[in-house]
Amino acid sequence: MSRITLDQAQAIVAAALKEGRALGLKPLSVAVLDAGGHLVAFAREDNSSNLRPQIATAKASGALALGVSSRVIGEMAIERPTFINAAAGLNADGIVPAAGGVLIRDSAGLVIGAVGVTGDLSDNDEKAALAGIAASGLAS
Amino acid sequence: MSRITLDQAQAIVAAALKEGRALGLKPLSVAVLDAGGHLVAFAREDNSSNLRPQIATAKASGALALGVSSRVIGEMAIERPTFINAAAGLNADGIVPAAGGVLIRDSAGLVIGAVGVTGDLSDNDEKAALAGIAASGLAS
Amino acid sequence: MSRITLDQAQAIVAAALKEGRALGLKPLSVAVLDAGGHLVAFAREDNSSNLRPQIATAKASGALALGVSSRVIGEMAIERPTFINAAAGLNADGIVPAAGGVLIRDSAGLVIGAVGVTGDLSDNDEKAALAGIAASGLAS
Amino acid sequence: MSRITLDQAQAIVAAALKEGRALGLKPLSVAVLDAGGHLVAFAREDNSSNLRPQIATAKASGALALGVSSRVIGEMAIERPTFINAAAGLNADGIVPAAGGVLIRDSAGLVIGAVGVTGDLSDNDEKAALAGIAASGLAS
């Protein structure tokens, strides 16, 4: 089983931002965390608002915390809002219950990290995240 | 009134995990706290997500905080979400309003601790918790 | 590169506690964390004080935070107390600058986790930690 | 007055890491913050310990918090440790009183951000930080 490298993380960031430009999205922020939830690479496009680093990180960290994408966490938040509030309070980097946080898996299917994207509509954030992972050769 | 021992706590953990395997559950995490809410024993099965230690602990701690199982707290959270959010903010280890946290009682019926299980659906977490307590000879 | 398993973590805990009994130490608490700093196994012996779970965890978490044993962090704390105070404030699980927290390495020498022991004098806590790792077949 | 751009921030990160390799340093982490203290770019080299993102960020954030390099803050910490401890507690991202955090200035001499480097000895962290800024065409 592998560990995500800085090269892989930076490839994910670059490809996610490139997808954002291709789709004409608002300025994006992209965070890539390792399996333990620790930041490996991050980029925030010009003219982004101030909380984007924390939101991108929380989307990724939440996915690693609960073992599902932040889109799924968003669905859980509709059915069980108090549970998701509680979980967010327990996670050091918080949890953001909206699409854009996607687990990163190696070729064996084991989780080696997560990417979190924020800046546009959640669905678009997630598109950028998935494009980032695809370009890196890793799986989601 | 007795105090829960490490031997009893480890027996609860082992039996809860064994029940999980018998039921074919996802990887479980089991925390046993003493009457004061302090961790006595904990185990997290391989391939669990990152927040499981805190969730297992919060299920048990919440039960001790409010004097009812975390299943009951989950029901309270539907009727009175603001109260449960507030209580979770007050408790150092948080409160998770979902089944899986069960009070442990001695033969006199006095609370001597709590077990918290997480990893599968809440109903199944609670089954593992109850199996753990039953195997230890203590009551719930 | 490998990930620490629950079996390995529980072996470390058991062997550390056994060493404590062999040396006639005060009641010990032993925490084993994975490479990301997340708790895998924990045990607190009977008649331990309340903060032992957090102290054991912080010794191990601090070692993973800075990449050195908590004994070395204790030495750093003498030379650069403000730096260690600052680092402790930045780490979600804190840092305890005293011996007893030891990094766990796989056969390739890569860090796969850490063990933290507390309960007796720091030097003795560290002896128990090292005995725990040795018995598990892993390296330190 | 200009604002630091993502391109400039990424140039600083890349050049700082390149300097680290040229000097044979341990794995580095580099954070670039804008004038408001918000993360713009970050990279953590492989085999770094877990707290490096927070330490790099705190070195840069502290420089922006007090208006001096973190080397100077380290000197202040020797003379006035209680003040620096207090300041660190007030700053959301903390303050690390060791060299490696350097203010970034535009051609008019106005502060537009800060870089924070960690991973090796503080003096070497600062060399990498200064090399990063120099390569970006900005001033320090």
UniProtKB/TrEMBL annotation, chains A, B, C, D:
InterPro entries: GlcG_carb_metab_protein, PduO/GlcC-like, PduO/GlcC-like_sf. It comes from the Bacteria. Transmembrane segments: none annotated. PANTHER family: SLR1406 PROTEIN. This is Heme-binding protein. It comes from Novosphingobium cyanobacteriorum.
